[in-house]
Design goal:
- It holds the Pfam family F-box-like.
- This is F-box domain-containing protein.
- It is a single chain.
- The protein has 467 residues and is α/β, with parallel strands linked by helices.
- Helices cover 17% and strands 26% of the residues.
- The protein is built from 11 helices and 30 strands.
- The strands form 6 sheets. Strands 1-2-3-5-8-10-12-13-14-15-16-18-20 form a 13-stranded parallel β-sheet, with no helix packed on it.
- Among the domains are: 40 residues, Up-down Bundle (Monooxygenase); 119 residues.
Length: 467
């Protein structure tokens, strides 16, 4: 059956270039259809063996190529250099593995439309000379997991630069339009080199210097002064910073995980970032307390803080709080109109909880062994959680008398509260009560007593979640 050219074109659009070549050998119609330039604007030769002559012939035949992927191709540098005169419409180039010398980067000037260059897992230069990337049209440059002695980047239109995991002793930047800079895990870069590179980019909005162990507070302060539009900063795993006296008023996203120098005194500088929306403070071993009043803060993460004892958060838009493995945490105070779910599981030292969260629906305080009977006031009417529907207090072994007066509560779990002897519930909407393992319960009171939707049977915990 003969296929129309349009139908054949549609079918061939689903084939990779290897299969197109095979299909083109079938007949003249298929050969003509397989050679349509629509199929050859994106040349994907990743991890493919291709001879120099074949590559040059393809580039000569299809000179409208816009995307070229040569990652993992042997002698990819030679292929590009030999075919560069046919790649004048190239916009995106991906290279990976092998050696890329100065000649390769100089040849890129023959591609005036090139705006994105990605190089990964490659050796740059000869190992004794500086590698220079100089291109007037380049907008995004990714040099990832590469090896070089010195790198100089002079791209006046560059917006995004990543040097992640690249082993280099020095980097020089002349990129006045740069907005995003990534130095993650550049272990060989000195504090001075990072400082000079970042401060040379006055429009910088996003900076990732995580796992650059040499970075100091002095560098952060100079970057703050030079890059006043900085809105995203990742300084995680930088043991020498305390963040004190660092003023970043435009900061929106701040990550300081595993920074050994972060203490409660650091929170003063954090408070200076009044429009901050996201904060990450995981594994900051010296942090003992966090007190923040930030009107735009939406989420915060506090994980594995061994000395952390006091949390006080006030933000009308706070919607996500992650607190985990904070064994010393005793006091939590939260004020938010956006928070709907709060999980504080296994906080065995937690004994004081204050909530003013008018849209809070679900609370899980499982295994908080130090919670006392006073917790009932927090979750009763007038306690600050008027929309509460689900409350889990499983294995809170210090609870002995539980009295709840809540007009919105639907689900309540007290499984494993072995010290509880008295239970009084005045919750007209209550449908599920879980009392598994409450072996010492002597008296229970439900009001109203004739409420048909109150289920007093011993449901397992799964049934609460299902409902």
């Amino acid at each position: 059956m003969d296929l129309s050219d349009d139908l054949l074109h549609l079918i061939f659009s689903f084939l990779c270039q290897k299969d197109l070549c095979r299909a083109g050998a079938a007949c003249k119609q298929w050969q003509s259809a397989s050679m349509h330039e629509d199929f050859w604007k994106y040349l994907k030769f990743e991890n493919t063996r291709i001879s120099l002559q074949n590559f040059v012939n393809i580039c000569h035949r299809y000179q409208n190529v816009t995307n070229l992927n040569l990652s993992g191709v042997l002698s990819a540098e030679s292929l590009v250099i030999e075919a560069i005169t046919f790649l004048r419409h190239l916009k995106t180039l991906i290279m990976g593995k092998g050696q890329l010398g100065e000649t390769f980067f100089q040849a890129l000037a023959e591609c005036p439309l090139l705006n994105t260059l990605t190089v990964s897992d490659a050796s740059l230069g000869s190992g004794i000379q500086e590698v220079t990337v100089n291109h007037d049209g380049l907008r995004e440059l990714q040099i990832v997991k590469c090896r070089a002695l010195r790198v100089s980047i002079r791209c006046h239109q560059l917006r995004i630069l990543s040097l992640r995991r690249t082993g280099m002793a020095h980097v020089s930047l002349n990129c006045p339009q740069l907005l995003e800079l990534d130095f993650q895990s550049c272990h060989k870069l000195s504090d001075t080199a990072i400082r000079q590179a970042a401060t040379a980019c006055p429009l910088l909005a996003s900076l990732d210097m995580s796992s650059c162990s040499c970075v100091t507070d002095e560098t952060l302060r100079e970057i703050a002064n030079a890059c006043q539009n900085l809105s995203v900063l990742d300084a995680s795993n930088c043991p020498n910073i305390s963040f004190e006296s660092v003023k970043l008023p435009m900061l929106v996203d701040l990550r300081l995980s595993s920074c050994e120098g972060i203490t409660s005194a650091s929170m003063g500088a954090v408070c200076f970032s009044r429009i901050l929306e996201a904060l990450q403070l995981d594994n900051c071993s010296l942090l003992t307390s966090v007190s923040l009043d930030l009107p735009h803060l939406k989420n915060i993460s506090l994980v594995h803080l061994r000395k952390f004892a006091d949390l006080n958060l006030r933000s009308p838009v706070l919607s996500y709080i992650k607190v985990s493995r904070c064994s010393a945490l005793r006091c939590v105070t939260i004020t938010s109109n956006a928070l709907k779910k709060l999980v504080l599981q296994k906080q065995e030292s937690l004994c004081n909880l204050s909530l003013q969260c008018h849209n809070l629906i679900d609370v899980d305080l499982s295994d908080c062994e130090s919670l006392t009977n006073e917790i009932c006031k927090v979750f009763s009417d007038g306690g600050g959680c008027p929309m509460l529907r689900s409350l889990i207090l499983d294995n809170c072994e210090s609870l002995s008398v539980v009295e709840l007066n809540n007009s919105s509560l639907v689900n309540l779990s007290l499984a494993g509260c072995r010290s509880m002897t008295f239970l009084k519930l005045a919750c007209p909407k209550l449908q599920v009560v879980i009392l598994d393992g409450c072996d010492h319960l002597e008296r229970a009171s439900f009001c109203p007593a004739n409420q048909p939707y109150v289920l007093r049977k011993m449901y397992n915990r799964d049934s609460l979640h299902k409902r």
